[in-house]
Structures are given as C-alpha cells and as structure tokens.
Amino acid sequence: MATIDLNADLGESFGDWRLGQDEALLPYVSSVNLACGFHAGDPHTLRKSVALAVERNVAIGAHPSYPDLLGFGRRDMGLTPDEVFDCVLYQVAAVKGVCEAMGGRLHHIKPHGALYNRAARAPDIAAAIARAVVKLDATLLLYGLAGSCLITEAERVGLRAISEAFADRRYQPDGTLVPRSQAGALLTDAQESVAQARRIVREQAVTSRDGQAVVIRAETLCLHGDGPHALAFAQAIRQALEADGVRIAAP
Amino acid sequence: MATIDLNADLGESFGDWRLGQDEALLPYVSSVNLACGFHAGDPHTLRKSVALAVERNVAIGAHPSYPDLLGFGRRDMGLTPDEVFDCVLYQVAAVKGVCEAMGGRLHHIKPHGALYNRAARAPDIAAAIARAVVKLDATLLLYGLAGSCLITEAERVGLRAISEAFADRRYQPDGTLVPRSQAGALLTDAQESVAQARRIVREQAVTSRDGQAVVIRAETLCLHGDGPHALAFAQAIRQALEADGVRIAAP
Amino acid sequence: MATIDLNADLGESFGDWRLGQDEALLPYVSSVNLACGFHAGDPHTLRKSVALAVERNVAIGAHPSYPDLLGFGRRDMGLTPDEVFDCVLYQVAAVKGVCEAMGGRLHHIKPHGALYNRAARAPDIAAAIARAVVKLDATLLLYGLAGSCLITEAERVGLRAISEAFADRRYQPDGTLVPRSQAGALLTDAQESVAQARRIVREQAVTSRDGQAVVIRAETLCLHGDGPHALAFAQAIRQALEADGVRIAAP
Amino acid sequence: MATIDLNADLGESFGDWRLGQDEALLPYVSSVNLACGFHAGDPHTLRKSVALAVERNVAIGAHPSYPDLLGFGRRDMGLTPDEVFDCVLYQVAAVKGVCEAMGGRLHHIKPHGALYNRAARAPDIAAAIARAVVKLDATLLLYGLAGSCLITEAERVGLRAISEAFADRRYQPDGTLVPRSQAGALLTDAQESVAQARRIVREQAVTSRDGQAVVIRAETLCLHGDGPHALAFAQAIRQALEADGVRIAAP
Questions:
Q1: Model pTM greater than 0.90?
Q2: Does B75 touch chain C (CB under 8 A)?
Q3: Which of B88, C156, C159, D7 could form a disulfide with B132 if both were Cys (CB 3.0 to 4.6 A apart)?
Q4: What is the CATH number of domain C3-163+219-248?
Q5: Could you give phi then psi for residue A68, rounded to 5 degrees?
Q6: Which chain D residues have a beta carbon less than 8 Å from that of C87?
Q7: What does the domain layout of chain A look like in residue ranges?
Q8: Is D156 exposed, middle or buried (0-12, 13-18, 19+ CB in 10 A)?
Q9: Chain B residues 122-161 within an 8 A CB cutoff of chain A
Q10: Predicted interface score ipTM higher than 0.90
C-alpha cells in the first residue's frame, strides 16, 4: 500500500497580523512546518500553533529561515555556512523546546523559502543545516527538495532525509522546479495539480514542462496554505489520493 | 563550610557590537546567564557563549528578557502574563537546545533587567515565568531577587528557587534595592562591595542605607561584567570569599 | 456651517502581512494617519500608502509609535521623554520626506496606541512629542485626545492642536475614555455610534456611561478601519453627518 | 590647488552598544555618513550624531543600507530594485528630517556595505538608489565607487555624483577593489596607505596589485573609523595631504 506525507506550513502569523488558514488546513495534512520567528511566527503564535498541532495529532516540524521578517524569508541572503548553522540551531532549538513543553515532540525540519532553495543547490549550506540538526537531535528528519543536495548532505551526516515534491509547481526536465519568476511555474488548475500529485505517488514521476516524464521519488508532498484556492486544492488532492487507496501519514 | 554561587551575565553582544568582558570574567564566576536574543545576544553570540561556558565548566543559565533590543530590556513593557509566559518559554527553549547541542546542559533561568524587576514585585508575572520554566523542565533552577515574589512563585510550582543578592547595590530597610534612579544606589568602592559580599555570605545580612541590619538569605551573588571596574570588583570579591574559606560553586 | 475632520489609520500592513481595508476606507475620510515602521508599516507599505493618499487627496498624517512591532504599539513602554522625542522625530521625519518625494505634503501627527494614551495623561511625554514636531516643522498640526495634556503641551510650544473624539468609544463623566479592558468600552451598535458622532459635531458633547452630558470639543473624529463592521460604521457616520449638512474636511 | 574630501562613517552604535570612535575621528574628516537605523544607528544615536556633526561643521551624509542589523548590512540580500528604492527613500528621508530639525542640512548619500558593492556593479540597483535620492531632493550629492555604475546612474538622473577612492584598499588592474575575501585586500601599513592617498589626490592614480598604474579620478577618500589603527591612519593621511598643500573640504 502506497503511503505519502502531506505537509503544510503553519504558524506564519506575526503579532497582530494573520496569515494562512491554519485551522482549516489541518484536516488535510499529516505534518506541519512551524515558523520559528525569523521569517514569520513569534512566541505567542508558535505556542498556539504547537498546541493546535498537538491537539490534532499531526507531526510537527520546524521551518527555519534566514533572518528576514520584512521579506518573509523569500530573499536570498549571503549568510556564511557558519551563520546558517547558528541560525538553524537557534530556531530549531526554540521550536523543539516549545513542542516538548506543550506535550508534543519535534518530528522534522524543513528549511523555508530562500534558505530552502539555496540548500537545494549549495552543498556547503545544505551541510550546515544538516550539521545543526544532527547536533541537536540525530533522530530528527530533514525535509528537502527531492533530488537536491540537501537530501545528500542530510544522509551524509546520518539523518533520515525526506524527499519533497510539489503538486502545484511545474518541473523542468532535470527534475528542478521552474523558477517562480517564469511563466507557468505554478499549476493553477486543480485537476492538473491533483493529476500531478497522483502521478508522483503512484508512478514516482511528473510530466515536465516539455512533456517528458521525469522521475521524482518523494515521501512528502507540500500543500500550500495561502492563496484563494489553497483549501480547495488541499481537499481535492487528499480526496483523490485516498480514493486511490493511498495512506496519508507522516514518515 | 559556607557555599555561595557567583553569577554573571554573558553573551550580551549583538552582531558586530561587543559588550562585556566575557572571557576575562569567567575565572571569577561559578554560573553564567546567557542573553537569549530579545535584549541582547543572537544565534552566533549564543552558540559561541555556550561553547565557552561548556569549556570553562561553569553552570549555564538562560537570561530571558522583554523583546526590546533597542532598550536592552531595561525599560518596563506592559506585557500580559500570557505574553510573558510565551516569551520566556521561547527564549529558554532556544538556549536549552543550543546548550544540549554543544554538549552542555541548561542549569537555571534568571530573568533580565526590567522583567527581573517586575517579576520581583508582580505575582502574576512571576507566576507566568515560573510556569514557563516548569513546563519546559521541572529540574531547572530559577534565580530571583531574595525575598521577592519570584522566589515564592517559583517554589509554589515546585521549582527550586535560588535567592540572589547584590554585592554592589545598596539595600533599603525592607530588603529591596535602592532604585538606580536614586543617589547611592550603587556601591562604587571596592572595599565596601567586598564587605557587603562577605557579610551576605557569613551573616546572611546587609547594612541598609540607614544603617540597619537587614536579613538577606542568598544562595547566589550577582557580579556585574560591565563598567570600568567590573573585573577588579569580581576578582576582589572572589579572593575575599575564598580567603574566608567560602566554597564558590553553582547550586 | 459645522465642519469636522474624519481621520483613519492607514498603511498598517507589514511586509507580506495585510491589515485594514485601506482602499475601501478612503472614500469616507478627510485625513489619514500613516504607520511609520515602529508598530506597523515598512518602507514599501509607507511609499504605497503615501501614493494612495496623494492620489485620493486626503490630508496625510504621521502615526508614530513606541518601537514595538510584535505588540503593535499597544503595550506601554517605559521610554524616557528624551527617548520619545528621538523616536517621534525619526518617524515623522521619515514620513515627511516620503510624502514630499511622492508629491504630497505632511499635514499632521497623531501618536499611536499606547504612546497616544500616555501622551494624553503624562505632560512630560506630551511635551516631548510636541517638541519633536515643532523642531521638524512648526506648521504641522498635532492631533490628540480632546481635553488631554497633549493638547495643552502642543499649544504651549506654538503648534496648532487638533482635539480628537471617538464615535465608537464610551466616555467617562470626566471626559476620558472608558478603558478597553472594561466592559462597555466600545459602542458596538452602528446607530448608537452614529448618534454619538452627530452629538459631538452638533452639540460638542457626548453622553457618558452614567448618562451625564459631557462637553467634548473636537475638530476630528477617529474612524476605525479594522474589525468586521468598520466600513459600515464609517459609511453610516459619514452619511449621517453629510445629511446634517456638516462639511467633512481636514483642518 | 588640489582639493579632496575625506569622509568617514558615523553613528554606527546601536542602543547600548558602542562602535567606532566618532568624537576622535571628526577632526580629520570633512564629511560624515550617518547610519540610518537599518544596519546600525537608532533614533537616539542618529539625533546625537547629527548634533555632533552640526557642531563640528562637517558635511552630513546619509548612509542607507539593506535591512540587516544582525549582519551590519554587510551581507548581500536579494532585494528588487523597487525594494531598494523604498528602503533608500525611507532611510534618507529620516536622516534629512533629523538634520533639518537639528539645524543642519543633508549634503549627500553614500550607500553602505553590501548595498554599496551591489550598486557598484548592478545598474538596476544603482538606478533605484539614484531615483530615490533625486525624488527626495535633486540637489543632494551621491557618493559611489569611482568608475562604477553608481556614478553613471547618478549622473543619468541629474544628480551630482562624487567618485570615491580608498586609501587602505588594494586595487585590481581594472580599477575595482580586491575583494576583502582575498589576501592583500587591505593595506595594513600606514605609510603605504598614506602613499596611496597622496597618489590618488596628486596623480589621480593608484598602483594596482600587479604593479600597474590605474587611473582613479576621485573627489572623496574614505577613512575607516574602526580597527585599532583607524585614528592613526586618518591622522597620518590628513597631515600628509595638508603638507602637500591639498585643501580638505566637502564637495
């Protein structure tokens, strides 16, 4: 029986500002990635989000980022590997402790935004993240882009790496994502997105922009929580996978 | 044989800005309080400070604060008890995790600045801090002003409370500190400060501003690391106590 | 012919986080108060908000705050008068320059949140704000709570002070607002709020919590932009005042 | 008679943290660049620094940066040109207003750190900075690296561009600076630095790393205020230039 994890970001509000549809998205996912306070999230939002995730019994991840609240962690920053190590260690430590205080347990780490993208292509940054995680707790899982060097570096230090794929992003023939700056980067049709999710789970492949089949071995699919159609997409993907007999569960 | 802990703040640099004399102060103390990033400290400073404290084998504490980097946590802020709980939990969790990642272990918590002062007089704030600490790890010690409600509230939730006294602050007849805004709040003469430290340890008392003996039962003395004479004071106090046969050790 | 200014806060988004209904609220107001980056707002939000206000031809104010992004400037902070002077000067200077760069002109200053409340009751803080404004530009108007010491201190340094009243807040017999922490602080019924606005404009009075008439001489009414009914209230108040023949215009 | 401007950064403290030797450096410079709060500086530091510069009668510049307090603005960040425009406009507006409030006048803008370096090589970023400055006040001068695209873009929008050279940095044959990451980037010998300053002023040239003469037409020389030998270098350069009969004055 095929199994897949469905993950989504959670706790990306900040102070009085709300973002995402945390409560509404939770029924569709098996794991969540909690903002740690560097691109979003704050001590209050984090504690409430942990409590919510514990109550709903989804696997809890930390979602560390570059220190860029104004840019929501989406702008690349020239941090050195040592600076990345320190920033990831601090953020993951905070989330791990809050989880344990609220009766939960930290399950995984998934880097956010520009840090995720840089970790997918820069081995020294990927290695810095992996070292920070293994230093803190070698039983934690590390989520990264399928086929990227974050997966390689996580395994090199002995972590269990979880390969991630996207139902709503278009792929290039080499297995990388079409950059968001290019047309067609996002799948905006729900049926197309559902079809991509099903193909990833059943055939471990996607159809790339130019029609080729590309092998993508993934253990988790990312569901987005923002945008007007996020909930409809999440619901449609979950229903389609369950109808296929796929088991939805965190690794 | 009398025993006393000598504690000092550590890791209060931020980014490129340096503060304190961390390396030079360490030989004189048995425990340190590490800035957590809210009034000072940052992920790099924290990791380096933890490594230094582990290497020197001093007991490591977290030094949580109001979120006020610009004011160095010294200005009172109208946080609710719930906001204090969340802020303390986040900061202590971060330091605890970084300690464990670097091969150390978190030993205690001491609130910083305006939060320390408010926790000494406001039972709801003191209780919020105590609850955050006990939620995270009930074996942690909580340092607070001797005779204040932070000690009471820490004990109420089952924490071991450590009463703190000051060698370089003048006391009022009721056992509280002369506010810094008043003349004579600080002892600026090294010999007077040494005498106060010795009397606290040997007689559990200080001489208040108006000449009365005031009972102060303390298990730890705070040594300041800033100011031109900080190191000289720290050295003089340590030497005088050791000459008295007092054992310097963390609780 | 009676004249009143209707003011609302604008530009209180931050980075990716949205707040308020800036576009929708603008048709109902004659002046706006722009967040300056300390409790909300950022360089991008500010520039866009200035452009919007210039385009719609409403009077532009700066809305300076305590430096407390996480608390949205709503928590009191123990800044000294000198610190308040510096913070207000910096924020107002930034907004003034951005206004001029975008083809507009700064018209007034209205302190935000906890700073507004403290300036209403603490003459030294009120004076610090007034001094900062007059140093920058003595032709700027300073909005403050009707009857409060901010009005007195503004006039003392030669500024034109604009007294503000609230259509949706309940008053105490002494002319101060019922604190938000008490029941009945907010008028939640649109008709009651409209009636209070009309009475302020026509009779320069409100009915206090205990049924007494209280004199409130105001040149501006604050319209809130957040909350589910904000737009409906704003529209109802504007329509009722216009139906009464009141001219809506900035001072 | 040859004339040169000597400029230095000022006001790079933050809150309780001190940086630089502002008072001691001022006698050697004719212009200063004030941190605006994004990489360093804060409302209090800025106001005091402006007052100091006004008192000493040196030309005052704004020193805008990426929003990166933790990294001191030295890490590259992927801001878009529009984001750079907004950030520069906000920062320069704040400094301009504070100058005017304190009886001074803003004279120039010099981008800081990673933003300076990016503006030297990326025409779209350079153009964004130039547009922000000209929008605010077309009479302001814009300092940039001699021979870089910031000079070109400043002139394209009608600003007076001031070419800057460095007495303590080694040059490459193409007129760019040897990156700090490479050995020999910095001139550590005072006499060598003095010789380079004199050659820039008298011959409009430097000797590059490989011994070639490189033409550098500069109107201002940067003096660094940090580092153990900063004051000695500044003093030596000023004395040598004055001994040569060079007039030290802001453009």
A1: yes
A2: yes
A3: B88
A4: 3.20.20.370
A5: -150, 75
A6: 43
A7: 3-163+219-248
A8: middle
A9: 132, 135-136
A10: yes
